[in-house]
Amino acid sequence: MSTNKLIIFDTTMRDGEQSPGASMTKDEKLRIARQLERMKVDVIEAGFPAASNGDFEAVRAVAGVIRDSIVAGLCRANDKDIQRGIDALQGSRGPWRIHTFLATSPLHMKMKLRMTPDQVYEQAILAVKYAKKACPDVEFSPEDASRSEPDFLCRVIEAVIKEGATTINIPDTVGYAVPEQFGEMIKGLRSRIPNSDKAVWSVHCHNDLGMAVANSLAAVRIGGARQIECTMNGLGERAGNTSLEEVVMALRTRKDFFGLETRINTKEIVPASRLVSQITGFVVQPNKAVVGANAFAHASGIHQDGVLKARETYEIMTAEDVGWAANKIVLGKLSGRTAFKQRLKELGIELESDDLYNKAFQRFKDLADKKSEIFDEDLQALVSQEAGISSNEVWGLVSMSQGSGTTDKPHASVVLKKNGADVKAESKGDGPVDATFKAIESVAKSGAELLLFSVNAVTQGTESQGEVTVRLSKGGRIVNGVGADTDIVVASAKAYIGALNKLESKNERVNPQYQVQH
Ligand code: KIV
Ligand code: ZN
Questions:
Q1: Per-residue model confidence (pLDDT) at position 308
Q2: Whose CA is nearest to atom 2 of ligand 1?
Q3: 57 lines ligand 1 (CB under 6 A)
Q4: pLDDT tens figures, 477-517
Q5: 238 pLDDT tier (thresholds 50, 70, 90)
Q6: Ordered strands of the 477-485 beta sheet
Q7: Residue 173 is assigned to a structural domain of this protein
Q8: How far is CA 301 from CA 312, 387, 460, in A?
C-alpha cells in the first residue's frame, strides 16, 4: 500500500503516559483527546484498557466523544486484555482500533515471556483472530522488533496479516535502531512478506539514543512505512518516543524530499504541546525543536538583522505555522460570562457542568482583578487548575502569607481548610516556597516525597501568572498538582494542595506501568 498520505498515530496518552509521573486522569485525557482531534491526528491511542479500571474508563470516555480520529486501545495478545479493549471501545462515537502486541525478540521471548518462538507465533495468530471478530481495524506490533530475527519476524507478520491485521507496526522498543539500518529493515520485511501489501506499515520508535525521529523518517523514506507512532513533546517511556511535532514539521518543511502529506493542522501544534506539558508537568526544554520557547528566537545581532531583512535567511518555517501566535489579549475585567464561555469553546475546552463554568468564571474574575490582560495561556492555566479540583476535596487553601529577604529567615503561615474546617500552620524554611510547603505538610502529614517542583511563566512579562507543577510520590502512586497565580508562592501552595488532594482521592488512577506485567 504505497500512497503519499502518512498516517499520524498519537500515543501521548498511552506510551507518553508511561513516563513516571505523567499519569493522567480521565478528564485530562478527554482534554488532550479533543485537542488531538482538533489537530487532526489520524489515530489517538487513548490508553491501555486492561491496565486499570481508571484507564478503561478513560479510554471509553475518549471513544465516546471523538468522532474525527480513530480511537485505539492497546492490549496484550490475550483474549482477556483484548476483550477489555473491545468493551472500552465498541461504543465509540467514531471509528476504533484494537492494537495488540507480543514480543518477538529472542531475549524477550526467553527471559520475559518464557515462551518458545512457536508459542509466540500461535499466540499472535489467536490474538489477531480474537480481535478481528469484533473489530475490523486491528493493529499488530511485534514488540522489540528491531532486535528480532528477521526470518521469525517475517513468519509472524505474514500469519497475522492472513488473520486480518490491517496495520503492522514495527517497534524499536528500546531505541536500539539506527536510521539507515532501520529503514532497510522495513524495506526488507515488506519485500520478503508475500502479503505485505495487505497492511499499512507503521513504525514506533524510542529515543534512547536520540534517533527516534531520524529512525521514523528513514523507515518512511527507505522502507515505505506509511504510519508513524509518536507523542507530543516526545513524551514516553525512558527517553521518550518520536516527537509528533518534529516528524510532522520535517515532512512538511522537506516535502521536496519526502513527497508525503499528513492531515495535521500544524497551527494546533503549540497549543497541544502546552496542554500536554501543563497536564503532565513535563516542562518543554527551551531549545526543543518546534515547540521550545527559543525555537523561533533569534539572539545574535547578525541573525536578527538577517531575519528582519528576509525571514528565510535564518528560518525554515514560520512560528505562526506551528501555532506560536503572538500573545493576544483575549479577555479583560469587563468580559462577561458569555464571552468567557465562547473563548473556552474556541480553545476546545468544554467543562462538564454549569457549576464548573461558574467556578471557572469566578476564578477568571479574580484573576482579572489582579491582571488587566488575560491571554489564552491564562485561560488554559486556569482550566488546568480547575480540572484538578474535585467537589469533595479534602484540602483547600483559605489564605496565606509569607516573608523572606536578605536578612529574615523565610517563613510562611497558611490557613487551610480540611474537610470544611479551618486549620492554621506556620513554618520556617530555606525559601518562601520551602517554608510554605513545610507549613502545609506540618498539618497534612502526608509523608509524600516531592519528586518535582517546576515554575513556568504562563505569558511574557512580570505581570505573568506563574504556573507551578508539584509531583508527589507516596506508596507507589505518583500524582501531579498544578497551580497558577500571579504570585508564584501562592501558585506553589495551590499546586501542593492539588497534589495532596489527588493523593487522597480514590479515583485517581495508578500509572499503568506499575500494574501491567508484559
Ligand atoms: O515500545 C513498544 O514496543 C511499544 C509497543 C507496545 C508498541 O510501546
Ligand atoms: Zn513504546
A1: 82
A2: 173
A3: no
A4: 888 888 889 999 999 999 999 899 888 875 545 454 444 54
A5: very high
A6: 449-457, 466-474, 477-485
A7: yes
A8: 16, 43, 22
> How far is ligand 2, taken at its centre, from the CA of residue 144, in Å?
9
Mutational test site, ligand 1, from 11, 76, 141, max ligand atoms within 8 Å of CB: 141
- Say whether both 75 and 159 belong to one domain: yes
Taking the CA of residue 141 as reference, the ligand 1 atom at the shortest distance is 7
Rg of the chain taking only CA atoms, in angstroms: 24
Ligand 1 and 15: CB distance under 6 A: yes
CATH of residue 422: 3.30.160.270
Detail the DSSP E strand segments found in 33-88: 43-47, 70-76
Task: Please report whether residue 289 resides in a domain.
Answer: no
Which residue range forms the structural domain that includes residue 181?
7-280
* Position 304 pLDDT exceeds 80: no
Same domain, 167 and 102: yes
pLDDT digits (tens, 9 = 90+) for 149-193: 999 999 999 999 999 999 999 999 999 999 999 999 999 999 999
CATH number of the domain that residue 192 is part of? 3.20.20.70
The ligand placed nearest to the CA atom of residue 141 is 1
Query: pLDDT of 36-46, one tens digit each?
Result: 999 999 999 99
Question: Going by DSSP bridges, is the β-strand pair 395-403/411-418 parallel, antiparallel, or unpaired?
Answer: antiparallel
On whether both 332 and 305 belong to a single domain, the answer is no
Cell numbers of 55, please? 484507564
412 and 339 belong to one structural domain: no
In the numeric block, which cell numbers belong to residue 375? 491571554
User: Does ligand 1 have an atom closer than 6 angstroms to the CB of 380?
Assistant: no
Tell which of 280, 314, 343 closes a domain: 280
Does residue 390 form part of some domain? no
- Cβ of 143 closer than 6 Å to ligand 1, yes or no, is yes
Residues 334 and 319 in one domain: no
Residue 231's Cβ-count burial label (10 Å; 0-12, 13-18, 19+) is buried
CA distances from residue 470 to 331, 358, 456, 464, 492 in whole angstroms, order as listed: 28, 26, 12, 19, 8
The residue whose CA is least distant from atom 3 of ligand 1 is 173
Decide: 101 in ligand 1 pocket, CB within 6 A: yes
Among 13, 18, 74, 174, which is best to mutate for testing ligand 1, by the most ligand atoms less than 8 A from CB? Answer: 74
**Ligand closest in space to the Cα of 74:** 1
* Pair (337, 463) in one structural domain: no
Give the model's pLDDT for residue 109: 98
Among 221, 254, 280, identify where a domain stops.
Answer: 280
d(CA 124, CA 144): 14
- Report if residue 1 sits inside a domain: no
- State residue 105's pLDDT score: 98
Instruction: Find the ligand nearest to 171 CA.
Output: 1
Query: Are 65 and 208 in a shared domain?
Result: yes
Higher pLDDT, 47 or 301: 47
Do residues 163 and 193 share a domain? yes
pLDDT at position 286 is: 86
